[in-house]
Amino acid sequence: MPERSESDSRKLLRRLRDSLALPGKGQDRLDRITHLIADSMGTEVCSIYLFRDEDTLELCATEGLRKDSVHKTRLKLGEGLVGRVARTAAPVNTADAPSEKGFRYMPETGEEIYSSFLGVPIQRVGEKLGVLVVQSKTARQFSDDEVYALEVVAMVLAEMTELGAFASDGDGMAALHKRPVMFRGGTGQEGTAEGHVWLHEPRVVVTNPVADDPLTEIDRIREAVGKLRVSIDDLLSAAALDKDQRQVLEAYRMFANSRGWLKRMEEDIARGLSAEAAVEKEQSAARARLEQVEDAYLRERLHDLDDLSNRLLRILTGQGTDTGAQMPEDPILVARNIGPAELLDYGRKLRGVVLEEGSVGSHAAIVARALAIPLVIHAERIITEALNGDHILVDGDTGVVHLRPDDTVARSLRDKMAMQAKAQERYASLRNLPAQSKCGTVTRLMMNAGLMADLPSIEGSGAEGVGLFRTELQFLIRNQMPKRDELARLYARVMEAAKGRPVAFRTLDIGSDKVLPYMKPQDEPNPAMGWRAIRVGLDKRGVLRMQVQALIRAAAGRPLTVMFPFVSELSEFRDARDELLHQFDREAAMGHPVPADLKIGAMLETPSLAFAPKEFFDLADFISIGGNDLKQFFFAADRENERVRRRYDMLNVSFLTFLGKIVTRCAESDTPLSFCGEDAGRPVEAMCLAALGIGSLSMRPASIGPVKALLRQVDLAEVRSVMAHARAAGAESVRPAIMGWLATLPE
Length: 747
Ligand code: PEP
Ligand code: MG
Prior knowledge:
alpha/beta; eight-stranded mixed sheet; eight-stranded parallel beta barrel; 27 helices; binds phosphoenolpyruvate; PTS_EI-like; kinase; phosphotransferase system; cytoplasm
């Protein structure tokens, strides 16, 4: 890099900073800047285009183009050369702009006389803010140095935009992070909430993009990178890292030690940027690349680089994750992603959660469900847009988030929330009444749980007990295998919180999507059908034994209900049951008090078990249909795959026929049957399950009210008759007939 251009760009940045320090309106500042850049770069034209909305760029200031086109000339993202720079987040440098592909002539600007064109994006860590352009009459290609210098200037403009330097009223620019923005994500957990943003990782604010003394800045960045390297090495040498954590840290180490990364930042500093601004410039470039790559592995690595840049910024600025900011009232957590333990730490303080990533089956989603707070996943770019304390509305039912909503939007969500609250009041009045249908049948309504955080809901919901306690969650939120005594204490607390109501503890269901961080992950092509649940329990007896011992000890003489997940055949059930009985005898022999009553059941989650020998149905004290898994295997449709997971209806006649067969087989052996998949919590589906003769339904606590309300309203014999008619008429699903019939019922 020639020394001359270095000092030129430093000089330009300093002039820029001095000019920005002068008082004035946003528009005056923009005008001064374009003049200054054109003058320093020796071009006739300098223009600044800023985003008006997500895909419209507006000419906001110019030196050289017609002044009356300012705030009039607009371009769509991707339109013309300016739009191309904005879309690709990469410079366009051409000696002959009019013959460049995509050139769009804008007569109102008078730009036709300018041949050369150089445009660079104005962006700040992935947030596209606009485009900075210089043009000149002489047909010449701008040198690499000039491109680089203009990028550095654009970086400073981005920082100043972030700080609100160009905000003004009227025709001027709206300040950033002020506009209402809507995000269309996916549903992680239903429910609605209104509150204020609480960023899991607050943004780092850079207030000094331009530096006077490059040598000091170079020292600062070297020292910070040194600290970063040491901190990563420390993390890597810590014990109890799982394979994924190790892989991420190895990637961090690779980037942190990369000479290219540091060198590029040092070059930016030599151009006049401060150490912080140089890190952000690199981070912006990585984010821009991230938008272009499809490859999942590369995307992950670019995310790693992004995280690493954040760490480096925090070292440089001393702004930790704890910025001292006060958590706002009604906090709604906004994050790229979050682990289950961290989410649990926030606990019931939160009104909702919005993630840029996440998935329906993720552990965070499970925790959000336990906390009964709405969760929206895949809200892309929300962490770039949201600021701590921003007003935010979360609609977990539709997966939509409104950031800084205007009044009409806020009002309509509030109406929806008020209606939901009214319905909740109605459900609360049913809390102590049985789910007795008009025909006299009483269905037991139980709740699903998995964390201590779930248990308080047992009172409010009116659940008769816990029909499914997913024990794996306690294993998933830890970094190491819990100890037997620790588990025994926890299970005892669960039983105490249930106050004598039954709790069906399901033994560990790991594998598939539930991977324990401290167990060697299996490289399985199809983990949902792989080594999971009771298969692992039977092959790794130590864990199963430890868990059932903990359960027996927790019961301390009280009744105990245990069920085994994912049983596929009689012998598996027999084997697991024998193990439990053996431990029961062993505990008794050791003088520990044993449960007064022990019920051992199986989850029916694979079609094969419905066809097991009669001995299975006789041996099981109860059977619980795990509808989520059973449905995925019945229809061969992955429950985690967004494309197919909603494709097949539980009310499909084939599936109902199959469920009917299970009901008959259980009845023949007098074996109590329940259903604990998600469908049990949907009122219409629950009603049909009850009509089929399934006597107990286990669901999310929030679903108990709506399910009970409907069950109490209908005669199950009538439901059966509507279903039978639809089937006789050859329907593929009974849903249309059922919905039609429900519509005729009095309110
Ligand atoms: C099911 O499969 O329906 C079930 C209740 O278990 P899980 O969702 O935990 O797999
Ligand atoms: Mg299951």
